[in-house]
Automatic annotation (TrEMBL):
PANTHER family: HAD SUPERFAMILY HYDROLASE-LIKE, TYPE 3, PHOSPHOSERINE PHOSPHATASE
GO molecular function: magnesium ion binding; phosphatase activity
Highest taxon above the source species: Bacteria
Name of the protein this chain belongs to: Cof-type HAD-IIB family hydrolase
Origin organism lineage: Bacteria, Bacillati, Bacillota, Bacilli, Lactobacillales
Matching SUPFAM superfamilies: HAD-like
Keywords: Hydrolase
GO cellular component, one term: cytosol
Amino acid sequence: MQAQIKLVISDIDGTILDSNHQVDDQLKDQVKALQKQGIPFVLASARSPRGMYGLAKELELDQNPIATYNGALIVPSNPKKLDQALVNHVIDPNEAGKLIDILQSQFPTVSINPYAGADWYANARSPWTDEEAAITQDKPIIKDPQSLLEEGVGINKFLLIDQPTKISHLEDYLKALDFKHCDFYLSKDNYLEVTAKGVSKENALREIAEVYQVPLENCLAIGDNFNDIPMLQLAGLGIAMANAPKEVQAAADDITSSNDDHGVSQALIKWVL
């Protein structure tokens, strides 16, 4: 017997957004129906706050927190309340410095994108940053990443972008080194994310469930990628998208239709509404 769902947490890219990066056009109605029942719908993503505010507004989620940077920074979905973070995990500055040194000396083609609060920085403009800007509707501040550390800026996340083979090599290389306070994981085959150790959508789910005082077995999590697996497994009900890789589908309790076929709306109708 499935426990009653009292909180929904959902990934964004490949989940509520279709292949053209548009919001599932049926979702707004389902979110309204959830709100009538007092069930929060919370977005959790590797994106920055700026990459999520517009979507939260479109879905009228003004009252709900958003878990940005995979949960490194959980803030209200109102841009004016960025300083009221519920959770703010920054990367150890010494390890951040070490990481930047390695990238600049040994992996010079990798696009280095530090994120701090709502700001996206990049070491240089490139086709990679242009592509990311088109997806998130945000623009990077071009700056040497070491100077951020010198200014005492707390970095919530690094996004490292290159060709998939280079990123795969970089991931293996970094994981073999002694980074005690960082976690590394792929969010796409050419995107390596770096956050403080223990930051994950799984912990974001824990922290948000605590804010709402909802037991984990009454939570529904929806996602489509490898970084969603721990969250899908922790929630009382974990739903994978039909467009998710097989390993992600195998980790979920059930599978909904694809992101181009109203998968999240269908999941909400079937399991919650």
